[in-house]
Write a structure and sequence with these properties.
Bound molecules: histidyl-adenosine monophosphate
Order of helices and strands: HEEHHEEHEEHEHHHHEEEHEHEHEHEEEH
Distance between the termini: 51 Å
Helix content: 25-40%
């Protein structure tokens, strides 16, 4: 026997029971987002590596450690997309969407790839549902997206949700703050974890994400960017908060919230579920007013979110959905003609019935058991001398002309309904 092959580490098969639960979430997301004016977009699964290097940022964990990049054979580096915001902004600029009435509101449901350490809730291929609004600076677009994600999470029954909210201000404020934070970190370098110390110059904000006890103490006294905002950014943030208050969505302002992507400006947010373990981030996002321009497009503000489909389902502890019961099972008794049974099956399906036929050579008893497992209400039993229609609930059986079996089944189901 040859070795049994396995799917790669950190990936998973979506089995039929899980597919039904995922479809239900996709359907809810589509209804909700399209009713709010978001239209579906699908970008390629791979992009030029440069898109993420420029868009997400060279110093981020995603770009520096987690990308699946490969040479396309022509000396060009391509990368399996680790996230969807940079590709959507690339598409916006490429297709001249800035010429359309603004904002352009888009949503997606797609697989993404990150070479992360695999564990429960953290995969190397995972799905996100995301939404992006491009071309509006209005704090109502930030609030709208947060409220939409909140509604979606509530609708699917996600448990123990918390919303953390902050503002990262403008790139200038952020650059000044970076210097201030670096000075604080350098002054306490001896108490910091080694990896944090090594990243003081490259990515000092990530120190807020560290679990290391010494680092956490140092960070408790660290200056917060949210306290350093310029007047316009502070007013924008205040308006986002007022709109969330109007919507009745509860949040905590958390100056330690650092998202792992460099494109954010102003609003950032993250929904976590205390029902999840270490990987508690269900969905997050924020504003990225410089991203389209950084990718070579016209200066365009933007804001969006993405939520992990698998984490949403874990937070909702969704039970696998049962398969829909079938209505008619076509069974073959001794002497039955396969072609005739096949015709009955097709006629039943044409009449709109959910129907299946025996395909595993079971005895008649075995076939009735299988019909029962499938939840069939009726069984058509074809034999050498004619056909019978069996009601599975009452076990009553009546002879029926094989030609009219589908019609008789349909009549019976209607009577019983
Ligand atoms: P992100 O926080 O990197 O943001 O990912 C969003 C969500 O995707 C996370 O909250 C999590 O639920 C899920 N996720 C991320 N990595 C994994 C993984 N390895 N396994 C399972 N689920 C995962 C973004 O991707 C931004 N593009 C969001 C955004 C949209 N910002 C503005 N617009």
């Amino acid at each position: 026997m040859s070795e049994r092959l396995q799917a790669p580490r950190g990936t998973f098969d979506v089995l039929p029971d899980q597919a039904a639960a995922r479809d239900a979430v996709a359907h809810q997301a589509q209804e909700l987002l399209e009713a709010a004016g978001y239209r579906r977009i699908e970008t390629p699964a791979f992009e030029p590596t440069e898109l993420f290097a420029r868009g997400v940022g060279e110093a981020t964990d995603i770009v520096s450690k987690e990308m699946y990049s490969f040479d396309d054979g022509g000396g060009r580096s391509l990368t399996l997309r680790p996230e969807g915001t940079a590709p959507v902004c690339r598409a916006y600029a490429q297709h001249g969407m800035h010429k359309e009435p603004q904002p352009v509101k888009l949503w997606y449901w797609s697989p993404f790839f990150r070479r992360e350490r695999a564990q429960a809730g953290r995969y190397r291929q995972f799905w996100q549902v995301g939404a992006e609004a491009l071309g509006s600076e209005d704090p109502a677009s930030d609030a709208e997206l947060i409220v939409l994600l909140h509604t979606l999470l509530e609708q699917i029954g996600a448990r123990e949700l918390r919303l953390r909210l902050s503002s990262l201000g403008s790139p200038t404020t952020r650059a000044e703050y970076r210097g201030e934070l670096q000075a604080h970190l350098r002054a306490h370098a001896d108490r910091l974890a080694q990896d944090v110390r090594e990243r003081i110059e490259v990515n000092p904000l990530r120190a807020f994400d560290s679990d290391h006890p010494g680092t956490r103490e140092v960070m408790a006294d660290a200056p917060r960017l949210v306290d350093r905002l310029g007047d316009q950014d502070a007013e924008h943030f205040a308006q986002v908060r007022r709109l969330l208050d109007v919507a009745g969505v509860a949040y905590e302002v958390d100056g330690t919230l650092v998202r792992g992507l460099d494109y954010y400006t102003r609003t950032v947010f993250e929904f976590t579920s205390d029902a999840l373990g270490a990987q508690s981030g269900v969905g997050g996002g924020g504003r990225y007013d410089g991203l389209v321009e950084a990718l070579g497009g016209p200066a365009t503000p933007g804001v969006g979110f993405a939520a992990g489909v698998e984490r949403m389902l874990l937070a909702a502890s969704e039970q696998p959905a049962a398969a829909a019961p079938i209505e008619l099972f076509v069974a073959l008794d001794e002497g039955a003609v396969r072609e005739r049974a096949f015709e009955v099956l097709l006629e039943a399906r044409r009449a709109g019935l959910r129907a299946e036929m025996e395909l595993a050579g079971r005895s008649l008893k075995g076939q009735l058991k299988q019909a029962d497992r499938l939840g069939a209400r009726l069984v058509a039993i074809l034999g050498a001398d004619g056909a019978q229609l069996r009601d599975m609930a009452s076990s009553e059986q009546e002879p029926v002309e094989a030609r009219t079996l589908a019609a008789a089944a349909l009549r019976r189901l209607r009577e019983g309904a």
